[in-house]
Each structure stands twice: as structure tokens, then as C-alpha cells.
Amino acid sequence: MTATGIGAPVRRKEDQRFVTGQGRYVDDFNRPGQAYAYFLRSPYAHARIRSIDTGPATIMPGVVAVFTGDDLAADKIGGLICGWMIHSKDGSPMKAGPHPALAQGKVRYVGDHVAVVIAETLAQAKDAAEAIVVDYEVLPAVVDTAEAAKAPVQVHDVSPDNTVFNWHLGNKDETEAAFARAKHVTKIDLVNNRLVPNPIEPRAAVGEYDPGTDNYTLYTTSQNPHVARLVLSAFIGVAPEHKLRVIAPDVGGGFGSKIFIYAEETVCVWAAKKVKRPVKWTSDRTEAFLSDAHGRDHVTHAEMATDENGKILGLRVHTTANLGAYLSTFSSSVPTYLYAPLLSGQYDIPAIYCEVDAVYTNTAPVDAYRGAGRPEATYVVERLVEKTARELGQDPAEFRRKNYITQFPHATPVIMTYDTGDYAASLDKALEIADYKNFQQRKQESARRGKLRGIGFSSYIEACGIAPSQAVGSLGAGVGLWESAEVRVNPTGSVEVLTGSHSHGQGHETTFAQLVSDRLGIPIDQVSIVHGDTDKVQFGMGTYGSRSGAVGMSAIAKALDKVIAKGRKVAAHVLEASEGDIEFKDGKFGVAGTDRALGFGEVALQAYIAHKFSGQDLEPGLKEGAFYDPTNFTFPAGVHICELEIDPDTGVTKIERWTAVDDFGVIINPMIVEGQVHGGIAQGVGQALLEGAVYDQSGQLVTASFNDYCMPRAIDLPSFQVGMTVTPCPSNPLGIKGCGEAGAIAAPPAVINAITDALGHEDIAMPATPQAVWRAAQKARMPVAAE
Amino acid sequence: MYAFEYHHPTSVEQAADLATRSEDAKFLAGGHTLLPTMKLRLAAPANLIDLGQIAELRGIQRSGDAITIGAMMKHAEVASSADVRAAIPALAELAELIGDPHVRNRGTIGGSIANNDPSADYPAACLALNATIVTDKRKITADDFFQGIFTTALDEGEIITRISFPVPAQAAYAKFRNPASRYALVGVFVARHADGVRVAVTGAGSNGVFRLPEMEEALSRNFAAEALDGIAVPEDEMNSDIHADAAYRAHLVGVMARRAVQAAAARS
Predict the structure, then answer these.
(1) Nearest CA to CA, how far is B255 from chain A (Å)?
(2) Tell me: domain A31-139+200-253+258-291, CATH 3.40.50.12780, correct?
(3) Helix (H, G, I), strand (E, B) or coil at A198
(4) What is the pLDDT of residues B166-182, one digit of tens each?
């Protein structure tokens, strides 16, 4: 390992500009002649729009234009799309209701887009929006996930029972047979609480149109600018693909919420041409709460069958997933193919059957949020495994160990083939770090102080780097899930890497450069990582699902291989040796068995001056590209152990210890990986203890600010004990599995398993707020009636 | 935010005069309630009178048996004041529990009291410490000052200049924070004075800060947490929201009262 190569804890190159306020985010871009957009949003969860009178607004000071859905329709601008087709059990396609960028005839959630005002200043746009007269016929709303299919309210005409699809996966007959011969069946009812993503930078967009060239530019907060361009051009139709440049500059976090293509950026691009001026919109925090796609929101009943030896025989799951008022860009894939295939967890479960009913409600659209489907699956599996172990009177760690998959590759009953892993190794290491053997002593010590101590496990698995494209295509994906890279070597030997991955907190400018430094033997500061601009990077699928390492870096590795191969040819000419005799090692091209060698920079220069070879023999220059399509998902896995203490007088839960042992395969930068683990756990603890989006029965978002929506803070978390085990991933050239979502996937069941352990009963839901825990502790104190 | 006229007087007299002369005027102290409300366009005063440049509203004095704090003193200044820490440590601790460092370096004691948010901390201290709120026109006892949520004895245009806190024998504040906002979900301030114990509760009541006479009587007889055994806090006047319903708040009042008494009794 070199000081800046693979495995080195290199400090993040990008942090200098971020921590000194030199980052450039979308809102930092101000274009000449720019006007400001403000969206008039629905105050009602469900209403018919009888009429919209924009007249009074258009004459307000500073107003440039006011547009409604009719204006978009007149220009034949299409609606927002959902890019993953799910078919119901009966073979019928999912019922996708229309999703216009500005409402047409109806609004379906509080925050839905009714009209846009474009004005000289934001304040003037807001003033004018207040002058728009909308005549609403308010309709009853449906907000409750479990009740949506039965509600006497219809969100979309295409779906009379508010059902998007009834989907299933697994083998029903085998699963029923497994339950029929089970010695014990454990049942559980779970709610996976709805979350608001809350990246620190809210969404923003600046649309610009150049009438001279007919070119459009969109600056936007996107995790995947090329996908945004494709959707905006091919499906929504605001601009031709080759005429639209999408720039996603520094982006301040996304957690999934910036994957999607929303109404606001659509309108900004379209309106820029209409008003012949750049148009800027920046979300405020209230708009972010109301209109960023939310996460999770599942209601699940699950059962686990075990035999007389405590081996798991089968699992059956029924989930109702709330997709909100409209199908967001990838919403349909989250509770289906990102969820049910993970229900085998780390366990050898012969039979699994899962049914998912997806429903519409009058709430914000729900889509991928850090982990996307996998936290929901892990919560089901790990809560159920823990409860089963308790009901069987077995140690939860040993019950898990007994059921772990130990032979690889392992095909699960839910379409996954796990390639590699060593789950017992992570468990052993976690038990040691957590000092599990002395837990009972600590529990007694807590009890002496009147506190309830509990310990909870989460033996999670996730599937990252979603791929290969052929497979996801067969499951309904509208896109391929490969990645592209281009390595441009300059005559001076410095290197620019153009990648389709997008960095919005992940540290790609450092880790990707480490790969280049490692492979080419050049210093890390000789490497620039270029991303987030469709005019620079030819195409890319973006960053989500912990795919940038496993897929994005593999594409870079492939392009680097080509660069080295070309460099070998150049070196052969310069060194007057045969190409087969040229070795590339430690940054030097040398002739085998001699001391004749050229540095990487010398070869780069020779490639460009082309004095030592003829154009007939070799093309000048040193630039190579690659598209990489993985052969499989990757399967990071690990064991998290949460130990906590409850104050039964107040219900306050304090996490005392957190052990995380993860197998992410080969690690590029352990410091960045550890940071990802910390952040993921914080988000997972947030879901388990603090966060929860609450709508009232009329569809108003009660938790629409940080006053009521509780984000995790440093004080809510302990110092994490992080360990690693490594089984290299066999399905990509770097052995990387991915680490971005692990903590958020692992943490919630670890917390709830620890709380239920402390309480001595299972009756607690997320978020386990002090009030909820206090109530549950009251119940724990109640004397149990003799049976 | 709508447009408004901004004024920054340098004396209380000027400020009062501006308030009388200006239409639809609001005083601006730390602005922690007013400014967010204006940004959300829920409040739209035509005139904003910033009290931040008035020297006479600042300062902390210890005089005999009282601590007097200028209305525009920030929470961080109260929390770090050596005089407050020495005389009424519970008051400094309360100030330190408000919001976060940003809030504490902007928010003021006068603003908090004048606003009388039902979840604010200072009203509990004023009530339990039997404070006197001094305005540009008169002196008002805390018992008379707080008149229900967001309602006080202040007249239109009346300006709090300082608050005078008698130094108690022992006092403590026990706060259960709203996990999200860090406001008091329940805060109980207990103070033992020469003439008896006062117990004030913030955050919990549906009508704002209030005293608990039953607890006060019990604690006046025996200043120990056990004295509160058997005293039930009625649920029917408790606030109820998504964070805490009335039953939980009523329960927490009892828990926090005990903790405050224990902490106060431990003080020499």
C-alpha cells in the first residue's frame, strides 16, 4: 500500500473547499438576467381545482410570467415519470396515475404544484403568488397506509382502490409447506416509519436558454445528471437531449432524494425559454419537508417458521407500501426488487414468500431513501429473528449463527445469489468488541440504578451496485445500471478522470484519485476527478445504492487498464523493445530484465508528441474510456450490536455502546468508510428513536419543520466501535462491495431489538420516542396475570 | 417576509416614542419567534423597533438579596455570568439549557418573558423565584405578569427594562426537552425561599406557565423529594401534542419536580 493508494486513509481532497465555504452549490450560480421562480403549492391534501385566476398576479410588481398546468400542456410538456415497471401478480402493469409538473384539475397532496410565478425577485414572486385566486373544491383525503386500499377516497382515476400493484416474490407453495411442518411459528406486526430525507442543502435549479444556439442548460441538485437529462428530454420533452446540458455541481447531500426528477427543475428549464431569461428556484426548508420524496412507510405482517432444532424453515411476509400521491422516479422498485430479494438476510431459509401491495395516498411521493427497501427488509428479518430466538429461549447471537449461510455462492428463494461472505467472522468479532459475555453484569448494574439495560443485534445483509443491466431490465427497470469512465492523460502526465458517478458527500475526489494513484503510480495531486456535467462526461448512471465504488470505480479501473496497455505500446516504440517485453510497475514502463525504463509522465509526453512512432503504427494521444456492467449485485454484510439503557421514569433511551463490524470487501479509504458507517448509523438511530413524518387525517404534514421533526444530533449517539472483516467481492475487478447505506440498514432493528430486550416485551414501534418507551415501560411493569 | 420599516433607537424613551408614533409596530429583541414568523409570512409588522442598541437594557447587577438582569441580556450572558452563577446557579443552568449556542447568543431574557411561549424556560424561573418584571412604566410581579399562553400583563408599547430575581435559599430547574425543538416539553423550577417554597411548571400546561400549590405546601413543610409522594398532577390542564400527550406530561411534571427538589436540596 502506498501513502495515497488503495487502502490508505487519505484525507479528503474536497474538504478544504467545503469547510472553508468555497464549495459551489446550485444556489451559488447566478446567471445574467436571472429571474426567480416561486411555486404556489396546494394547501390541501386533496382537492379539485375548479378554476385558477392568475390575472391579479400578472399585474403585480416585478412579475415576468405566471404559468399553470394548462401552459405546460399547451406546449406538450409531458408528465413526470416512474422509470421502473412493476407487474401485479395477475400480470397487469402497475397503475400509474398522471403526474403533471403543474397540477391539472386536481391536487393530491399538501405541497403539490399549482402554479409558478416568475418575477424579478423572489419576494415579488411570493407576493404575486398570494394574488393568484384558486377555487378549490376540497375533497376528503386518505393518508393512512394500511387503510388506503379500503378508503372511500380515490387518489387517481386509474386506480379505484388506490392500489398501484399487488406484487409478489418467492415460492408460495413451498413456503406454505414449510409452515405446515414447522414446530414453531413466530409472528410480528411492524411499521416502518415514514422519513423525510433532509439533506443539508435543499433542492435547487437554474434553467437557462440560449436562443442563438438553441441550447438549454440546467444547474440542478442531482445525484445523476445524465439520467435527469435523459428523462427531461426523452420522456418529459422539455428539450432535445443533445441540446440540454445538465450540471450538478457541488451537491450537499442527497440520501436518495436527489436521484429523482421533480417538477421544479422541469419547469425551470421550460420556463427559461418561455420568458427568455434564466430562471432560478431554490427550495426553502418547508418546501423540502413538503415536496422532497419521503422514504420508507411500510406496514408489514411477517411470520417465521422454525423446526425442532431452531433451524429456520420458512418466511412469509405481507407488506403494504405507501407510495404517496404520485409515482416518483424509481418509487415502484423500492418496496419490490430492492426489498423482497433481501428477505433471506444472512440466513439459509429454504422457502420465502412475500406479497407487497403498493398504495396511493394524499401524501408526498415516497421513493428511495438511504438503503431504499433494504432497511425495510432488514427490519423485518432482524426483528423476526430476534423474536424467534427469544420465543425459543435461545441466545440471539447463537440462533443467528446456527442459521447463517456458510456455503457460497448461495442462491436464495428470492432471486439473489450471494457471492461471498463470512457472517460468523463478523459475529465473533462483534461479540468480542461489544464484550457480550459481560452484558448481564452491566444489566444488573443498571438495574441497581433503576435503569433498564438491553442489547440488540442486527445481522444485516444488503445488495449494492444494483446490476447487471440485463437482469434489472428483465425485472422492469427502464435503464441499464452500468457505469462509464474516461481517463484522460495529459502530456505532462497528470490525469483527469471523467466519471458518471456523482459525489455529493461520498468523497469521490479522494477515493477515485486513490485508485488512479495506485494503478498508475502517480501522486494523488496529479489526478482530477471530473463529474456532474453532461457536457464533460459522456454518460453515466449516477450515484445511489452504494454503487460508486463497486460499479463506478470498476469502470475507471477498466479504463486505466486500457491506458496502461496503450502506454505499453508507446513505451515499446520509445525504448525500441517489443511490446511483450514491456512491464508496467511502480509507475514505470520498463523492458523486462533490463534497467531501461520510462516514467509514466515520460510515456504520456511521448504519446502526445508522437515523435517515436508513426501514425500508421499507433494513434497519438493517451485517453481511454470504458463502460462497466457488473456481473452481479454486491453483498456487504455485517453485525451491529446496540446496547442501551432506558430510564423507566421518563422513557429516555440512551445508547451506551455501539459495535459495528462490517464486511465491505476491499476498502479504498478506511477513514472515509468509517465516516460512512458513522453517518449511516446516525440515520438509522434517527429512524429508530427520533424521526417520523406525521400527517394528520386531513393530510396536513404535522412534522413540517425541525421544531417537530427530530433529526439525530451528536448528543443522541455514543462513540461507535467500528471493526471490519474482509471477503473480497468476486464480481468486480476491485473486490469492492460498497458501504454507503450499511449503517442506515443495520441500525434500526439493532436499536429496537435492544429496547425490546430491555423492556421484556415486543410492543414498541419506531420511532421509539421517550413517550412511547415510557408507555411501553409502564406496560412492562404491569404484573403478569397467572395463566 | 414582507417589507417593513426598521428602527434602531438608542434609548428606551426613543423606543417607546417610536412605538406610540408608528403604526403596527413590533419590538425586536432576539427575534427567535418574531423573525421566523415574519419569514413564513405569518406576521407582517409595518414597523420593527430593534431594541438591540439600547445600553440601559443591558447589564447584570447583584444588589443585596437580588440579581437584576437587563431585558436585552442574552441567554449565553446569563449562563456565564459569575454573579448569577454565585447567587442563583439554577438560573444560569436554565439559561444554558435554552436552545443551542446560536440561540443562546441571540435570544434575550426580556424577549422570552414578553413572548411568554408556553414552552419557554424563563417564565418558570420568574414564577418560582418570585421575580419582579420592571418596565418603562411600572413593576409587575411574576404572578401578575404571566396571563396565559403568549399573553402577559404588558400594555401595548410597554417595554420590559429588567427583571429582578430575589436570591433563594435553594433552587433548581429540571427540564425535559422536546427531542426535536429543545424547548421544554416539561420544565419544573423549584425554589426554596425564606417564606416558603415555590414550584413553577413550563411546557406542560395548556394555558402556559403555572404554579403547583399542593407541591409548594408539601415542600414548604419538608423540602425533600419524598414530600411529593402521592401528589398527583391533574391531566386535564396539560397540553397534548405529537410529542407528549397530557398523561405523559402530567407524569413528567412529577418526575421533573422530584429531580428539581433533589438537585436543589443538594445545594448548600
Answers:
(1) 7
(2) no
(3) coil
(4) 999 999 999 999 999 99
